Automatic annotation (TrEMBL):
Residues 234-294 form the Transglutaminase-like domain. It comes from the Bacteria. Residues 1-41 are annotated as: Disordered. InterPro entries: Papain-like_cys_pep_sf (IPR038765), Transglutaminase-like (IPR002931). Transmembrane segments: none annotated. Residues 30-41 have a biased composition (Low complexity). Pfam families: Transglut_core. This is Transglutaminase. Residues 1-11, 20-29 have a biased composition (Polar residues).
Amino acid sequence: MPTSPIPVQQVRSRRVGSCAQGSDGSSHQGRSAAASDSGAGSLGAWSLMGALLRKAARMIRGAPHLAPGRQSATGTGRTAGMRRTLHTTLSGELAGPQTVYAIVAAAATYAPSQESLSVTLDGEPADVSQLVGPHGTRLHRFALEPGARPAHFELAYDAVLDGEAPPPLDDPVDLPIYLRPSRYCESDRLGQLARERFGGLTGAVLTEAVTEWVHDHLAYVPGSTGPSHSTLDVLESRQGVCRDHAHLAISMLRARNTPARFVAVWAPGLRPMEFHAVAEAYVDGQWQVLDPTHLAPRRAMVRIATGRDAADTAFLSSYGAGLRLTGYRVRADIDELSSEERTAPVVLT
């Protein structure tokens, strides 16, 4: 379906890393450039990657494109009065044949008035396939085929979102999944601490208490953690980036029998601008967003990917000869950035 592509600004190599993912910029076979240290794509019985790969892919040759069934005009029934503009460029070197998955696009629950995504290999348009998985997470896949020489890649994504989107549809299986411990959220080892800190609290009182405790317990220190750091690691060091704040909040909530999950987001108002990470907790029959960093207004955020922890939401993953990320740029703007009460319940829209 045709789009009105936004001009893509070319960028040079810059500091590589993400608040949301804790990347060190490196990538190895079976690892994500931005979050996962989980092995060759196997993330357990409920695997975001596995679920996505079971979906039918839509192949596009080179040109910017929209998600299947996505409208390129307004009139989608969304709430008017809020416009968010998203832009990212990623660039890097592919050492040899491999498959790359990018998770940078707004979730499929949104209906952008404009949207484009393109990938080039050594300046030539690449084949890109889109896969849509749980909670509307969209993977964009491209590959350097067997026998190909090393290549430079560039990915550009732009979108304009007018109004709000409904939250992803609830699935009853989500609740037991998001009560379990996971790779980065060792809730099964935090039961005693969670009881000592939050025993007797439930619902919104619990989520508020956990959010503020994590904010006070962890110092926000860019570059202080890497792709392998888990909740237990940051509990000891008492410092981390946004993904670590989200992981600790999720772990404590699960330890108190409250379903909680990890969400990678675009965050207008975040400074410096990065991909951001927050938590969602299931309270009063809905998934409410929690941001223990207090770095950006939650109502402005745009969902990218949702999962058990950062292993399910890496913005760039490589499977094969290896990938070196050399630069990226992220920008998210909103027409009107308003303040909010930290304790007010917020649902991502």
